[in-house]
Structures are given as C-alpha cells and as structure tokens.
Design brief:
Elements (H helix, E strand, L loop, with lengths): L2 H10 L5 H11 L28 E7 L2 E6 L5 E2 L16 H9 L4 H8 L3 H13 L11 E11 L29 E9 L5 E5 L5 H8 L8 E6 L7 H5 L2 E5 L14 H17 L8 H13 L6 H8 L8
Parallel strand pairs: 4-7, 7-8
Antiparallel strand pairs: 1-2, 2-3, 4-5, 5-6
Helix pairs in contact: 3-4, 3-10, 4-5, 5-10
The structure holds zinc ion.
The site of zinc ion has 8 residues, from loops.
Length: 321
C-alpha cells in the first residue's frame, strides 16, 4: 500500500462503527488462537514414584505451589522435586521465575529483587539449581576432543574466616599468586564442531586426575583426544585407550592446522571473562557449579529457555546429550 493510501486509511479509522472495529481487530490478529502453554512445573510430572519406583501414581492435591502425587503401591506422597536438591526449598511457586533469572545469568541481587527473595536465599537457590547440572557431562563423544587446562585464582570469597593472609585491593599479600596452591586447575574439553563440553575442577594437574575427568566422555575408536605436550596428557593414549594427538606448545596454530586446542581455548576465554568480570570472581568451593552454569548457558546456540533451566535443576539432563 502506498503511503498516501495508508494515511487516508488511518484518517478513516475514526469513523468506524463498533462492529467494524471488531471486524478490523479480528482481521489484524494472528490467525491461530494463542496456545496456552502448560505451567512449566506441571510439565515435569514424575513418571514413577521416587520412593519405590512404582508406576501407579495419581494426582493428590497441590502443596507449596506444586502438584502432589500419591503412589498407589507404597502410599507415600511426592512431587517433582522429591529426591532433588530442590526438595526442601520453600516457595516452590517461585521456581519458574527464578529459573528465568538463571537463564539470563542475572546476579544474585538482581534475581532476589525480581523474584522477591532475600539476597541470601537467592544465593542458596542459585547453588541448589546448579547442583544437579554438575554431572551433566558428555558421554562417549565421536570426533576430535580438544583438551586443555586453565587456572583460576584460589578464592575464599564469602568466607568469614580466611585460611591465608588477606589480599588488599590494589595490592597482594606477599608472594600471593606465585605458589601452586594459589591457583586451581580446571580441565576443559570441547568437541570440535559440536556443542559438547566436558569440564572438571582438579586438585592437581596430573595424568590420574585428567584420566578420571575424561574417561566417561571418550569412547575408544570414536574419540580422538588432542592436547598440548603437558606431561599430564602424555599417557592418555594408554590410560583412556583412545587415539591421541599432541602439538608442541608455542607453535599454536602456526605449524598444525588440524591438531590444536583453539576451540577449548576460546571456551576458556569466555568462561574467564564471565567469572572475573561478570561475576567479579567466585569462591573456589562453588567453582564446579559455575562451570555447570556456563555449560548450560552455552549449550544451545539458539538460546536457553527457563524450562531447560528448571528441568536441569530437577535432574533431567538437557545438555551434553
Ligand atoms: Zn511408591
């Protein structure tokens, strides 16, 4: 339609009769009536009784904003959070809203304000929501698995008692950051061209720990593990039983266009920026949860839904599948 025609159409709108207005509104609204989505938590109906695994379960009222079920075999009641880290939290009717804050990566303060929780409670919820996601690691990946380590400064953020001298802003405790104990190694494996991520906080970077971190993620004959020449990686061929490729550090990307760990390194950069700038550092004891959160947020290029966050918190593996 030409601009002048549209202008006269708009001018004519004032003289429409009520029934004409109605017809116009119908013509402009989308053809399909909006589909009402079921409430997320109702969609998480348990298939079996978590107490006896019996499958004869019936609805049995609503408690704390959640559908309650009764098992016909053992006569015990449960809901979708029974047996998960969320089971003992109150105000479950707020889980939906909180999951949406997690999806967006909101700070504890922002999430607390949005959902109407205290800051302490929002922090506790964050870690309960992430607890089930920590073991959601890939299994037996097919392809080139780039493995590399990165380090995070050991942090006692939030602790009331420090077991080391305090660091002051603008300065450091004497010698801080120089000893091995000041840094926590984190192993990250990324599958080239696929969204799979395996990660683990290690006590020490050595062959035994690396093997334990990777053993479920690889599959002999299907996975090729690519690393730099660090001694911790040199026996993976034997300990994991998979094909391995090494490159000499210092020649990143220059001499070998196939066997590098650029994908894993990019992931490190993103992770570190988020933790150090976005979150202003995290306590070491919570680091596994933050790795899980990052894995969750980066799994789907099309974006994460709050339902994915909720399902994951309830223990269903959404990522790395
Ligand atoms: Zn039962």
């Amino acid at each position: 339609m030409k601009a002048t025609q549209f202008k006269s159409l708009l001018a004519g709108l004032a003289s429409l009769t009520p029934s004409q207005r109605k017809k116009l509104a119908e013509a402009l609204s989308p053809t399909a009536p909006p589909v009402l989505r079921p409430r997320s938590m109702d969609a998480l109906q348990p298939h079996a009784c978590p107490h006896c695994l019996g499958e004869k379960v019936v609805r049995n009222g609503v408690c704390d904003g959640l559908q309650r079920y009764l098992c016909r075999s053992c006569f015990r009641t449960f809901n979708a959070t029974t047996g998960t880290p969320l089971s003992r939290l109150r105000d479950k009717e707020q889980f939906d809203a909180y999951a949406d804050c997690m999806r967006q990566g909101l700070s504890v303060r922002a999430a607390a304000a949005r959902v109407g929780l205290t800051v302490d409670k929002a922090f506790r919820w964050r870690h309960r929501f992430l607890q089930s996601v920590v073991p959601h690691q890939p299994k037996g990946v097919v392809g080139l698995l780039e493995v590399d380590e990165t380090y995070f400064r050991e942090s006692q953020k939030g602790s009331r008692k420090l077991t080391r001298p305090a660091r002051y802003s603008g300065g450091r405790a004497k010698g801080a950051g120089r000893k091995a104990g000041d840094w926590v190694p984190v192993l990250v494996g990324r599958v080239r061209g696929q969204p799979y991520t395996v990660d683990k906080v290690l006590v020490k970077l050595n062959g035994v720990e690396v093997t334990a971190a990777l053993k479920d993620a690889v599959k002999p004959g299907e996975t090729v593990v690519c690393t730099d020449g660090h001694s911790a990686f040199l026996r993976l061929h034997t300990s994991l039983g998979v094909e391995t490729k090494y490159f000499v550090a210092g020649y990143h990307g220059h001499t070998n266009k196939t066997f590098h760990v650029q994908t894993a390194n990019n992931y490190h950069e993103q992770l570190k920026t988020w933790i150090q700038r976005g979150l202003r550092g995290v306590a070491t004891k919570y680091l596994p949860n933050y790795l899980a959160w990052h894995r969750l947020m980066t799994w789907n290029k099309a974006g994460l839904t709050s339902f994915d966050v909720l399902r994951s918190a309830f223990g269903q593996q959404v990522i790395n599948t």
